[in-house]
Amino acid sequence: MKKRNLFLLTIFTYFIFISKVLSIEIIRDVELEEFTKKILSTLVKNTEIEYEDLNYYFIKSNDINAFVTGGNNLFINTETLIAADDYREYASVLAHELSHILGGHIFRTKEQMNNLSDRAFPVFLLGILGIMGGSADAGVATMMIGSASVQDGFTYYSRNQEASADQAAIKLLCSNNIDGKYFLKFLSRLNEHASYDVEKTSYRSTHPLISERSTWVQSALKQHYNCNHQSDEKLQNDFELVKAKLFGFTHSKNETNAVYNLDADTDKYATAVSSYLAGDHNDSISKLKNLIIENPDNPFFRELLGEIYFSKHDYKSAIEHQTISMNLLSDDHDLYLMMMGNYYIASEKKEDYMKSINYLKKSLRINNKNTYSWYLLAKAYGESDNLPLAEYATAERYYLVGNYQMAHQFVVKSLKDIEKNTTEWYRANDLLNIINNMQNQNS
Questions:
Q1: H helices of 262-370, where?
Q2: Phi, psi (degrees; rounded to nearest 5) at 67
Q3: What's the average model confidence in pLDDT over 373-377?
Q4: What is d(CA 377, CA 207) in angstroms, rounded to the nearest whole number?
Q5: Are residues 158 and 271 in the same domain?
Q6: Number of CB atoms found within 10 A of residue 295's CB
Q7: Structural domain boundaries, residue 47
Q8: pLDDT in tens, 292-311
Q9: Measured between alpha carbons, how far is 61 from 26 in angstroms, rounded to an integer?
Q10: Count of CB atoms within 10 A of residue 194's CB?
């Protein structure tokens, strides 16, 4: 029964699912995040924004859209990346949204957005099916104002703000050696996209008509006539792989097979993903092994292969490939560390629980808002017969998802037996004080 429950918790591993009432699914993927990091960190050079100050989230959707909210939060629909043919088109979208942040537009619109709060649906995290935690699950509920019901009836930015953001985006692109003409290419591509109605404003109701935007971009390009920068072949290759993987995850197997029907690495990758989701693990494993032979330094092929082995309960192979994947990455990532923690728990060997705890604590040092890492840490502590620390980890998780009553109950329980003067003891006391102060303010 224990293994069956574990399988139910991990069948859709490494994705965050947000309430279907809103039709919003926030996804996390290391390859997608790392690629976007490269683009964003380039674009914010020589600006007043540090890359570390940005929060970005990916919404699983077949509509092209991107927008920002208060607190430097950038939201990108997955189809936005898929619709682009070149990484510079994707960079153009990111540059536009960054320009809203740099221009302070989101703060000028904040009051109007707050006035819509009574019309906005609340966002609830569904703690099911292998949630891949992260700052998104704790933060989306407080930073987003709802979904289609609000977006369809409200223009986030004024026409002047949009014109300013489009023109500032060209400056960002050109000053960072990215050809700004690809912004025009992306705008023209919107007309070709099946989900886009040319009679409506682009990006749902948040952006003006394409014809207007094209005029603004063309005007800006005239001021940056020396913006004919060459393509970065490595970035383009990485982009095509990310796009292929994302297509396989967000479109049906039939659609994926129709689009990716050649023998290139991108085609193998996309169909390996779609086969995995369709339950054809042997096909996925075969294609991924072939990709690894041809691309031994790619960490993401290894990661996906490990995930598939994990779904087949081959935990030894999952750990082996995930370890190689982590060694190939230049930096630690909270998701990969969390996955290792999960794999070691699944092995159900007592000596592996401490390994799991070590990986999960490292994951939380990188991202202490990863609620699924807190869940797994509580589980690992529980399996290790350390009930006070299991209760403490559970309190942290409940606090992050906004269930302060349950967080209070568990932190009080943990403090009865938790070892004094440890890091966890100090943090548990801090957490208790925070919750008590919140309750006093609301009473």
A1: 265-278, 281-294, 299-311, 315-328, 334-346, 350-366
A2: -160, 165
A3: 97
A4: 43
A5: no
A6: 15
A7: 2-223
A8: 999 999 999 999 999 999 99
A9: 9
A10: 8
| Element spanning 111, H or E | helix 105-115
Tens-digit pLDDT profile for residues 202-223: 444 455 678 788 888 988 889 9
pLDDT of residue 420: 96
**Ordered strands of the 66-69 beta sheet:** 26-27, 55-59, 73-77, 66-69
Residue-wise pLDDT for 236-276, tens only, equals: 999 999 999 999 999 999 999 999 999 999 999 999 999 99
Three-point CA angle 335, 337, 342, nearest 5°: 90
**Integer angstrom CA distances of residue 89 from 160, 249, 301, 314:** 23, 21, 25, 40
Whether residue 266 sits in one domain with residue 218:
no
Mean per-residue pLDDT over the chain, rounded? 82
Burial code (b: 16+ CB inside 10 Å, e: under 16) for 330-355 equals eeebbbbbbbbbbbbbbbeeeebbeb
% residues pLDDT > 90 (the chain): 63
Q: Which residue has the tokens 């989306």?
A: 140
In whole angstroms, give the CA distance from residue 379 to residue 127.
Answer: 15
Beta bridge partners of 15: 27, 131
Note whether 210 and 309 are same-domain residues: no
pTM: 0.83
Structure tokens at 393: 């980890």
Q: Do 58 and 195 have their domain in common? A: yes
Contact call for residues 132 and 16 (beta carbons, < 8 A):
yes
Q: Is 242 helix (H, G, I), strand (E, B) or coil?
A: helix
Of 148, 122, 131, whose CA–CA distance to 67 is shortest?
A: 148
Q: Of 223, 242, 267, at which residue does a domain stop?
A: 223
